[in-house]
Amino acid sequence: MRTDGPDLRHHGDAEVRDGGTALVDLAVNVRADTPPRWLREHLTASLAGLAAYPDGRAARAAVAARHGLPVERVLLTAGAAEAFVLLARALKVRRPVVVHPQFTEPEAALRDAGHSVDRVVLRAEDGFRLDPAAVPEDADLVVIGNPTNPTSVLHPAKTIARLARAGRTLVVDEAFMDAVPGEREALAGRRDVPGLVVLRSLTKTWGLAGLRIGYVLAAPETVAELERAQPLWPVSTPALAAAEVCVSPRALAEAAHAAHRVAADRAHLIAGLREFAPDGLLVAEPADGPFVLVRLPRAVAVRRHLRDLGFAVRRGDTFPGLGEEWLRLAVRDRTTVNSFLQALDRAMTLADR
Fold first, then answer.
1. Phi, psi (5° rounding) for residue 200?
2. DSSP state, 173?
3. Which residues form the Aminotransferase class I/classII large domain (predicted)?
């Protein structure tokens, strides 16, 4: 694991870990007020089966049905993070490439597994948009997020599909896709893109980060290869119960409703942030995820003052391709956003002193 450059192991939870309940969390991209009551009750009921070893067949079948795939194309994992580790350890690759700025765990997992990783860094001047031609032709593993954390960019599915090649594994992290209304530009469920591996997480929309549940959608031979690298019973009984119920029609309808609410709340946040444009604040747009990336002067001091005022936000300098002038803000309800914007005004004033 290389030690120079950004800290690839820094995640949003570090921003709130030592702040207790006093901090309003805009640093972690987990939907607020989750898990809902019906999900908590379902998880509680699953505890009656803890004496038996986990049986993932029903959950795997439910996920497969949700995406219109055979079960052989589904692998349940302890969150999307485990999937990155499995890919790094199980696949025999010569030249892995990670498209940045994005979630840093894929690169960290690859480096921990002994791989030398190349980076394709998208530029703010280009709106952090993907140019498939920028990816080396001989890359045999390419990792990209969609919508991308932290830029909130939603790349067109046809653009990402252009990265597919014979002999190349194309990993698309769709951990936040269910927060996009209609899941437009999703590749999950596609079987016509060679080498495609799609990762999904159930921890963001349903507030299950502490439970650890996600899944991989890929060709049967890839799923089998990753499964061989897993320990026995990698996903707990409560996590399996969550996987099964969170892809049910009721849950999908609730997630779709939540995605539209997030979009409205994000628009409200961005409108408020634009008011700070004369002070040098820039919003990375268009934004399609449940978070917004901003660049502003003296961001380090602003983040410190925001913390003193009771708000935790995500620093941007641990993402390759960004610097300390960038901050990521999770989308919250309008009341919270209004309070945050007032605190931001105060924090920027204090930073100017």
1. -125, 150
2. E
3. 24-344
